[in-house]
Amino acid sequence: MKYGFLPFTLYTIISGILWMLFFAPGLWMSIQTADISHTMVVVYLGLFPTVVPYFAIAYVTMKAGASEATIILYITPVLAMVLSWLWLHEIPGYVSVVGGILTLTGVLFATSDMHKGDRKKPSKKTSVTL
Asked: Which residues contact 105 (CB under 8 A, 6 or more apart)?
């Protein structure tokens, strides 16, 4: 059975909700006694950093394929570091910057076509029988 990106993402989110129902006792009381600003922060954290990226990665995976779509996930830590630098004024450490550059360089090298000529092309006589 094949699912599109929308049903697959919805099933994933719903199954996550079902497993979290274990923690539901007392939830309604906590929501009623919580400050509205705290409740809105939790709603924000549930929607934007969780649900929106699920739909985005599912859509990109459907259009471009899994290997091309998941390579974008390497940008997430870099984006988080830049945003924390700009919004929270957290200055990234030397080790973080060097490690990030090293990681992204490795990803670029692994996914680039620079070493494409070094690969051996499969023989046309090769066949697989099961």
From this structure: none
Q: Which two tokens stand for residue 71?
A: 């390579």
Would you tell me how many other CB atoms lie within 10 Å of the CB of residue 48? 10
Structure token digits, residue 5: 């990106």
* Residue tagged 């998941």 (tokens): 70
Beta carbons of 19 and 64 less than 8 angstroms apart? no
Report the distance separating Cα 117 and Cα 120, nearest Å: 8
Residues in the chain: 130
- Round to whole Å and give the CA distance between 10 and 59: 12
pTM over 0.85: no
End-to-end CA separation in angstroms for the chain: 23
CA–chain centroid gap for 33, Å, is 33
* Tens-binned pLDDT, residue by residue, of the chain (130 aa): 777 778 888 888 889 889 988 888 888 888 889 999 888 888 888 788 777 777 888 888 888 887 777 777 777 777 888 888 888 888 989 998 898 888 888 878 877 765 555 555 555 544 444 4
